[in-house]
Every structure is written in C-alpha cells, then in structure tokens.
C-alpha cells in the first residue's frame, strides 16, 4: 500500500508540536530527530578544506598535506566530513564516553547528510572494540555510526570482518609512535566469499590514523584490493 507523504508529514508535524525535540547543545528547540537547533547545526565544524588523501584539515588549499607527500598512507582514500573541534567534539565525547545514544544518533544524521567526495564502497567495516572494553561501554561507537550509514547508502555492513585480537591501551594519551606500536598485531580480518573489491573501514575519530592504518593493512592482506578510511571527524595535526 503506497504511503501518503502528505499524511506522513502531517503526523510528523503534529508529533513535533506535541513532543518537540530539544537541541542537545543549547536546549533550544531542535529539528526533529536531529536534536540540534539551526544555530548549533551551523556551528558544526565542516572539514571542507583538507588533504585529499588523509582528510587532514588544512589552512590553505593544497592537493596533499606534507605528511602524505613524504609517505603514502596504506589506504586508498579518506572521508571525514567534520573536524574534531567544538561543538562536535562535545557530542562525540558524550556519545563515546557518556552513554549518550541520542548524541550518537544526531552525529549519524549529520554524517549521512554530508556530501560524499569519494566512490561508495561495496561494504562498510567498523573498527571493532575488544570484548573487555565492549562489556564496559555496552556498545561499539564505530558500529553504531556504521549502521545508519550502511542503511543510508544501501551498502552491506560487515560487522565481523575485523576482529580485535587483544586489548590495547587507550590511544588518547599516546604519541604517534606509541599509537602505532600499541595497535600493531591487534587486529585480524576474514571475509566470506566473494571478497569485496572495495571496502571502507569506519571509525568515529581519525587522529593520527594508527588504528585505521593497521585495520587497512590486515583487510588488504585478507584480500580486499581497495580499502578506504571513513571517520566522522578528523583531528588536526599532532
């Protein structure tokens, strides 16, 4: 039976009038499921000027950042539609460490509404948590972001293609070199036949890229010819 779009919009309007959403940042009236007001949505730090290879935010237009010019990263392309700055960083922290799933839903909606500058992959692979951290947190933030993106783009979600073999220290306080050592050998990858020709490995925040790079390497060793990296937000150079 076809859906009457006008009736559906009318119902949505009535529900919004009776139970209006509120902005998660300032408390003003939100925009339905987005849970952000117009002003706070406009404040989201878009990553429009960035390196075409690693999505690092740049201060001036350039095809590649200095790091990518010196050393080619293991992934084929990168997409991070936001910079990891306030106020997006506040929502991300609440989602990742504060069990605020409403913030996660808002971040996912912002991501799905962002223009895609890269080719869509044949599958999305979320970065996994170790089972000990998953038990403490209760959910994998990368998987929770990947679910709506996979649905929006109509791309299969391969939630078990990557496994985390061992618990690693939190990357937050580590240097770039320490981050690489911390995740070395921490992941394994397996694909069901046929192996996708093109996958995107997805995480919430791209900082130095150590975790994503290790995931890319093991996915390529498992047979994926092209592996892109997707992240909600890209941190500035460290």
Characterise this structure.
- The chain is an alpha/beta fold.
- It has two domains: 1-43, no CATH class; 44-234, Rossmann fold (3-Layer(aba) Sandwich), CATH 3.40.50.
- The protein is built from nine helices and seven strands; from the N terminus they run H-H-H-E-E-H-H-E-H-H-E-H-E-E-H-E.
- The strands form two sheets. Strands 1, 2, 3, 6 and 7 form a five-stranded parallel beta sheet that branches.
- The longest helix is centred in the N-terminal third of the chain and has 14 residues, at 5-18.
- The chain is globular, with a radius of gyration of 19 Å.
- It starts with a helix and ends with a strand.
- The relative contact order is 0.15.
The tally of helices reads 9
Given this structure, which CATH class of the largest domain is correct? Alpha Beta
Order of helices and strands: HHHEEHHEHHEHEEHE
What's the total number of strands? 7
- Helical content, roughly? 25-40%
Number of self-contained structural domains: 2
User: How is the main sheet built?
Assistant: 5 strands, parallel
Give unreliable regions as ranges: 1-15
């Amino acid at each position: 039976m076809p859906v009457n779009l006008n009736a559906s919009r009318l119902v949505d309007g009535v529900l919004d009038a009776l139970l209006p959403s509120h902005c998660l940042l300032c408390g003003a009236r939100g925009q339905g499921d987005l849970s952000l007001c117009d002003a706070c949505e406009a404040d989201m730090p878009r990553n429009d000027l960035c390196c075409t290879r690693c999505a690092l935010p740049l201060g001036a237009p350039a095809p590649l950042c200095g790091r990518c010019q010196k050393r080619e990263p293991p992934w084929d392309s990168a997409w991070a539609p936001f910079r990891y700055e306030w106020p997006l960083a506040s929502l991300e922290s609440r989602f990742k460490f504060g069990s605020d799933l409403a913030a996660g839903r808002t971040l996912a909606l912002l991501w799905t509404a962002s223009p895609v500058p890269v080719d869509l992959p044949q599958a999305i692979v979320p970065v996994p948590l170790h089972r000990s951290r998953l038990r403490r947190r209760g959910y994998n933030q990368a998987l929770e972001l990947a679910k709506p993106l996979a649905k929006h783009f109509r791309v299969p979600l391969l939630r078990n293609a990557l496994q985390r073999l061992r618990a690693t220290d939190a990357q937050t306080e580590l240097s770039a070199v320490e981050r690489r050592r911390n995740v070395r050998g921490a992941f394994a990858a397996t694909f069901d036949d046929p192996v996708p020709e093109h996958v995107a490995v997805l995480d919430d925040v791209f900082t130095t890229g150590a975790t994503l790079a290790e995931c890319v390497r093991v996915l390529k060793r498992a047979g994926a010819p092209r592996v892109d990296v997707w992240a909600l937000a890209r941190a500035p150079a460290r």
